[in-house]
Amino acid sequence: MDITQEFYNNIASQYDKLFQDWQSTIHEQAVILNRIFNDNGFDTAAHILDCACGIGTQSIGLAALGYRVSASDISAAEIIEAKERAKKNNVDIRFELADFRGLADRFSEQFDIVIAMDNALPHMLSNKDLEAAIKSITEQTKPNGIIVASIRDYDRLLEEKPSYSPPYIYKTDKGQRVCFQTWTWKNDNYHLVQYIIEDEQTLQTSKFECEYRAVRREELTSIFRANGCKEVQWKMPEETGFYQPIVIARK
Fold this sequence. Notes:
This protein is α/β, with parallel strands linked by helices. The chain has two domains: about 5-155 and about 215-250, Vaccinia Virus protein VP39 (Rossmann fold), CATH 3.40.50; about 155-210. It contains eight helices and eleven strands. The protein has helices at about 5-10, 20-40, 60-65, 75-90, 125-140, 155-160, 215-225, 235-240; strands at about 45-50, 70-75, 95, 110-115, 140-150, 165-170, 175-185, 190-200, 205-215, 230-235, 245-250. Strands 3-2-1-4-5-11-10 form a seven-stranded mixed β-sheet, with helices on both faces. The protein has a four-stranded antiparallel β-sheet with strand order 6-7-8-9. The two termini are about 30 Å apart.
């Protein structure tokens, strides 16, 4: 098991604590993605693959809007969590355990839209792995289909390489919850430690560790184009309302 699988397996049962209200977030993000899909010529007739689905933050909201959704993730624990959450939300989603570098091992069909949100692609710590992931993703995308992915604004972050991310402080029924990350850099890679502190009737602290590579937008654009994407555009948060820059690549 690599560090990415271990990170998401460990955090799966607490991942929703990174949000003030996860249930509201899934619907808010689905509305944002639906607008992007509509702007690129797709409606709810499109078949979507969420290839880094986590606990279902995007896939469940999109299925609730009426999209036909398949979803996969590298973490078995997150797939289990996502299935339970899909059931509670009364949506039907096909879930598969899959590494997005080898999607063809689990999916024989191609999709109108493939998404990889929440900074998933930067888990690829080498050029070789990133290229393998994008090749796999584009191969599962139909001709004239689109790939939609979000990453942190690394073009900006690489200028100063911060040692932490600002904390999120959420009020709860019994107190408050504080979530923040520390980052230790080595060239363009960084070791991330995610803390979740629950200051309620008792004080509880959880800690999860992972690795990322800060990928510049130009690098991702070049790899998408090298793998058969004829159009690549970037949308920034002030334009979409999503919290990270989003790339839209048309095959």
